[in-house]
Amino acid sequence: MKTVFQKPEAMTDVPMHYCPGCTHGIIHRLVAEAIDSLGIREQTIGVASVGCSVFAYDYFNCDMQQAAHGRAPAVATGIKRVRPEAMVFTYQGDGDLASIGMAEIVHAAARGENITVVFVNNAIYGMTSGQMAPTSLLGQKTATSPRGRTVEEMGYPIKMCELLATLDGPAYLSRVSTHDSRHVLQAGKAIKKAFEMQQQKKGFAMVEVLSTCSVNWGMTPANALKWMAENMVPYYPLGVYRDVTAKEGN
Amino acid sequence: MPRGEVIVNKELCKECSLCVVACPHGVLGIGKTINSKGYHSVEAVAPEKCTGCTLCAVMCPDVVLTIKRKSPERK
To answer: Selecting from 3.30.70.20, 3.40.50.970, 1.10.10.10, 3.40.50.2300, what CATH number does the domain B3-70 have?
Structure first.
C-alpha cells in the first residue's frame, strides 16, 4: 500500500499544546503542506505572533521569529526587505491581528509588502480564556460580554478581508473556513496560493481562516465546527476578495 | 482486503473525535486505552471499511493519522 497522507516535512515532531479539537493544528498543517509542496522550506522564515499560536515557532520546521504582540507584519517587513530571497509568512490570531496589531496589518497591506499573512479568526480571545475579541459576533457570549455582544455597547465585529480590500496595496485576500474536510482542502489551496503570490513578487497576500475555540465557546469540538458553519460563515462570507492574477487572466 | 489503512499515533491523540465525525464509513471510534496525556485515543474500530480517502486525517488537528491506500492517488 502507498502512503497517501502523513505529517508534512515542514512540521516538527513536537506535540502541539493546543486544546483538543483546536483548528490551529489543522491550519499549521495546511501551512506546512503549502511550504512542502512549493519546496521552499529551506528559504522560509515564519513570524509567530502572541496568543494561542505563540508557540508556533516550535511546530514549524523552518526558521522562525517571535514578534511582539500584533507586530508580526512589521517584523516580517523587516525580514523581507533585508532578505528579499526569503519566503516570509506571519501566523496571527484575531486578537493579535485585528486588535492590537490593526495598525501594523493595515499599513503592511497599504504598502503592499511582499509577505504572506495567515490570519486565524476564531471570534474570541483564546489564550486569555475567552474574552470578547473585535471579531466576536453580535450576540456572542464571552467572558467580557456575558449577556452577548451588543452594537450599543461594543459596536460591530470587524471584517478584516473586506476592510483590507478597500486598499490598493494587497495582491491577494481570501477568506476560507475549516468547518469540514471539503473547506479544509479549499483552505489549503488558498494558503498555497498566498505563498505563490509572494514567490511571484505580486505583493501582500492574506488568507483569513475561520477557526473554532471549542473550550472558550463552551462546546464539544464537533459542535464548535457546526456552530462556526451556522453562525460565523454567514457573517464572514467565504471567498476571494482580491486576486491580482485573476485580472491578468492567469 | 480493505482498500485503505489508517495508522494512529496514539500518543498524540487528544480525543477530540473530529476524525470520527469526518469518516464517511464509520471506520474510527474512541478507543478504550488511555495515552500518557490521559486521553482515550481513537482507533480503527472497523478497519475493513477503510477506503483510504484521507478525510479523517484532513480534519485531525494533531496530525495523529497516517493513511495508506491501495489504488493510486486520486487527483
So the answer is: 3.30.70.20
Distance CA A167, CA A104 (A): 14
- Tens-digit pLDDT profile for residues A133-181: 999 999 999 999 999 999 999 999 999 999 999 999 999 999 999 999 9
Local structure of residue A18 (DSSP, 8 states):
S
Q: Does the distance separating the beta carbons of A222 and B21 come in below 8 Å?
A: yes
* Residues of B with Cβ-Cβ distance to A225 under 8 angstroms: 18, 21
Query: Is residue B15 within 8 Å of B40, Cβ to Cβ?
Result: yes
- In degrees and rounded to multiples of 5, residue A29 shows phi and psi of -65, -40
In chain A, where are the structural domains located? 24-248
Domain ranges within chain B, ordered by starting residue: 3-70
Chain A residue numbers with beta carbons less than 8 Å from the beta carbon of B65 are: 5
Put simply, the answer to whether B68 touches A2 (Cβ < 8 Å) is yes
pLDDT digits (tens, 9 = 90+) for B2-36: 899 999 999 999 999 999 999 999 999 999 999 99
Q: Compare all CA atoms of chain A with the CA of B39 and give the residue at the minimum distance.
A: A20
Q: Which residue in this structure is represented by grid cell 522564515?
A: A45
The pLDDT value given to residue A248: 62
Q: What are the chain A neighbours of B36 within 8 Å (beta carbons)?
A: none
Q: What is the CA radius of gyration of chain B?
A: 12
Hey, which CATH number is domain A24-248, 3.30.70.260, 3.40.50.970, 3.30.300.20, 3.40.50.880?
A: 3.40.50.970
Complex ipTM value = 0.93
User: What distance in Å separates the CA atoms of residue A70 and residue A121, rounded to the nearest whole number?
Assistant: 14
What are the tens digits of pLDDT across the range A90-123? 999 999 999 999 999 999 999 999 999 999 999 9
Residue A182, min C-alpha distance to chain B (Å)? 8
Q: Which residue of A has its CA nearest to B21?
A: A222
